[in-house]
Design brief:
The protein is an alpha+beta fold. It is built from ten helices and five strands, in the order ααααααβααββαβαβ. α2 runs parallel beside α4 and α3 packs parallel to α5.
């Protein structure tokens, strides 16, 4: 079965865990200065409430810990350590204000213990954040080439198609396969094959815009979803992409080329993401049956241009 024959786009859960994960991701993307300033503002609010609640013999210590944890998640480790010390100092203010001897030995020891606990807590949070980021990256991106893994690519395609429908953009759905890759692995070894894949993917990603999508579907099969201003530009870009990656493959010293099947979808196109890539995959396979280094381009049904098919040898 081909890669797109059983495509299932990710559907996010609607539970609390999903909302929490999204909130954590947004927090992680916030500027460090903004997070630090926001944390200090919340600490000031909590210490004010804590002091006001002291006559009622109520302490708000859990709120200090909550602010520390949330803020440490978004900060780099050094800043998180600094914020932990600030939190420990601020949390002691109500005690200092209510103590008859505010700078006695007991107060100092208490402050040091609290600072150590808060610093340790910040270390745990930042360490977990680093491990979380690494696991998230491995789930999203192929470790060898840096391209999106199959499922994240499919999910991103679904979002991109919705956006393109709103903005009336023309898209290119392309499937690329390296010609003779299995023979390279057999003759020169997996290390040579991995090196060629990395070189290919790096050049392909340099050739496209940051908003375009590149996915590794498995082995030497890659898929692209690219935005373009017009169908004419789309055809020219597909050939330019093919030329650039073919040149890069030639520099590896290995007898490699690539075949591309590309479907150009105008704003009027009626195909779903699955259908676009099924047809692009079919074009790519048809190109491979014709020889090596082939480019086949067609227009998706509903696109207001005459279908064309172009063949180019590397």
């Amino acid at each position: 079965m081909d890669h797109f024959g059983s495509m299932m786009f990710w559907k996010g859960d609607s539970g609390f865990g999903t909302y929490l994960e999204r909130a954590m991701a947004r927090l992680a993307r916030m500027p460090q200065r903004t997070v630090l300033l926001g944390g200090i503002v919340f600490l000031a609010l909590i210490v004010t409430l804590d002091g006001a609640a002291r006559p009622l013999e109520v302490r708000l210590v859990p709120l200090y810990i909550a602010v520390l944890c949330i803020t440490s998640w978004a900060l780099r480790r050094r800043l998180a350590m600094i914020f932990a010390i600030i939190t420990a100092i601020v949390a002691m203010l109500p005690d200092i204000g209510a103590s008859a001897s505010p700078f006695g030995m007991a107060t100092i020891v208490n402050a040091l213990i609290r600072a150590a606990i808060y610093i340790f807590l910040a270390l745990i949070i930042t360490t977990y954040r680093r491990a979380y980021d690494e696991a998230d990256y491995r789930a999203m991106y192929d470790g060898l080439t840096g391209a999106l893994n199959k499922l994240p690519f499919q999910a991103a395609v679904a979002r991109q198609l919705i956006r393109a429908q709103r903005t009336h953009d023309t898209l290119i759905a392309a499937c690329i396969d390296l010609d003779g890759f299995k023979l390279i692995n057999a003759k020169y070894g997996p290390a040579a094959g991995d090196s060629a894949l990395r070189a290919f993917a790096q050049e392909a990603m340099r050739a496209i815009r940051g908003s375009d999508l590149v996915g590794r579907l498995g082995g030497d099969d890659f898929a692209f979803l690219l935005g373009t201003s017009s169908a004419d530009h789309a055809e020219a870009f597909v050939h330019l992409l093919h030329q650039r990656v073919t040149t890069t493959l030639g520099k590896t010293g290995l007898p490699l080329s690539c075949t591309i099947g590309a479907l150009i979808a105008g704003p009027e196109a009626t195909l779903t993401g699955m259908e676009l890539f099924e047809q692009a995959d079919g074009l790519m396979r048809r190109g491979k049956s014709q020889g090596h280094g082939v480019v086949l381009i067609e227009f998706a049904p509903g696109t207001q241009f005459k279908p064309s098919e172009v063949r180019a040898r590397a």
